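Form 7-S
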Amino acid sequence: MTDYTELSLADLRDGLKKKDFTSAEVTDAYIARIEGAAALNAFITPTPDIARDKAAESDAKLAKGEGGALEGVPLGIKDLFCTRDTLTTAASHILDGFHPKYESTVTTNLFGDGAVMLGKLNLDEFAMGSSNETSYYGDVVNPWRRTGDNATRIEAGKVVGGLTPGGSSGGSSSAVAARLCAAATATDTGGSIRQPAAFTGTVGLKPTYGRVSRWGIVAFASSLDQAGPITRTVRDSAIMLKSMAGHDPKDSTCIDRPVPDYEAVLGQGVKGLKIGVPKEYRIDGMPEEIEKLWQQGIDWMKDAGAEIVDISLPLTKYALPVYYIVAPAEASSNLARYDGVKYGLRVADDKDNITALYEKTRAAGFGDEVKRRILIGTYVLSAGYYDAYYIRAQKVRKKIFDEFQEAYKQVDLILTPSTPSSAFGLGEKKNADPVEMYLNDIFTVTANLAGLPGISVPAGLDGQGLPLGLQLIGRPFDEETLLRGADALEQSAGFTAKPDEWWV
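Output:
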C-alpha cells in the first residue's frame, strides 16, 4: 500500500492528475499523521474539516480533467498568513480570537491553484526568533534527534529533551521534515526560511524581495520580510514559488514582472556558471564539520562544471548589527497597531483610561522577545538616536547591497554554509545572552538586507547524525539560476536521510 505522505509534492501533483489516487486519500493520510505527531507541536490550528472539504472539491475537478497546478495537494500554512475566517495568531497571545475576513495574496494564489490547507503552523511570535521557542503556543520540536539519543522522549504528551527546528518558521520546517504536509509556506526576515530548513534536512527558498506579495502577511519588518516555501526537494520549491509569486497591486513593494516557469530550468546543470566563495564567511570558531561540508560543496560544483571564484564581501561583518537595528525599528512601528481596541486581546476595558488599556493589553499580549525588539526599535527611532543608529544602519545596508552588486559582476551565484551549527537543544540558548541566539542568522541576514534570493539545500549530516545545509545566494530576480545551482547541489549531495519516527 502506498504511503502518500512519503511522496514529494511533484509526485503527488502528477499522481493526482493521472488519477493514481485521490486527494481525499492523500489528505486523510496527512491528517492521521498530524494527529499522531501532536507532541511535535508543529501546528497551532489543524483544519481537518476544511482540508477534507477542499480535497472533495479537488477530486471532483480532477475527475473531469480540470484543476490548477496544485490541485488536491495538501499544504501547511505558517500562522503568519491571514486565512479567511480561520484563526490567525502570529503565535502571539495578543491576536487571540482573530479570524480575518480576508485572505493573504499568497494563500489566495495557492488555493486558487487547488492546494488543500491542512492547518496553520506554529512559529516564533511575530516571526521573532531563531529557535521557535518564543511562541505563545509552546516550543516546536525538531523531528530529528542525535544518533543514539534515547533521552529525547514523550512524557505526558510532551517532548522531553528535544532539539530546535530553527525559527521563525520552525512549525513549517518540522512539519515538512516529519511528513505532516507535502510542503509549507514560510517567511524569511533574516534567515527564517533557510535556517530552519538547514536544521531539519529540508529545502528552504527565500525569493527576491518583491517577488512574492506581502499583502495579508502579519508584518514584522516590512523592508526585510519575504514569503517563500519550505519543501522536501528543489523541484518542489520551484513548483511552490511559481504558484506563490506574481504581481499584486495591493502590495506597493511587489514587482510587476513575469513569473518564469522555474521547474523548466531544473536539470540544466551549472556548467559554465561562476560560483563565488566569500572568504569573510569563514568565521572564527566555525565547526570543522561546517568548513568541511562547505569545501565539499565547492568540489561538487566544480565537478559539475562550474568555475569557482574566490571573492571578498568585507561588509559582511556589519550585517548582523545593521539587521538588529533596522528590523527592530520596523517591528516597533508595525506592532504599534496591536492596542486591544479593534481586534485580538483586550485586558482592560476602561473607556476613561485609554492609556491603561494600551499598556495592560500590550504587557499581557506580547512575549519577552517581542518586547525586547520593540524597546530596541523604539530606542533607535527616538529623536536623540535616529541619525546615530537608524539612518547610519540604512547607509551601511546600501553599501552591503552595492558590494553584492559588484560581486555579481564576477560570479553568477555565491556559495556559503547555511548555518554556523546543526540544530541545538531546546532551552540550550533561550535563557543565555540574546546576542548568542542572534548569531544563528550570521550567514543569512545579508540576503535580506540586500533583497537577494537565497536557498538552503540539505547536503549532509554532522557527527551527531543531524542535518547540515549549504546556501546559494543569487542575483535579484534570478531565481532560475539559483534553482539551477540548487538542483545541481542537491543531485551531487544525494541527501536521502530522514528522521526516525520516535514521536509516534
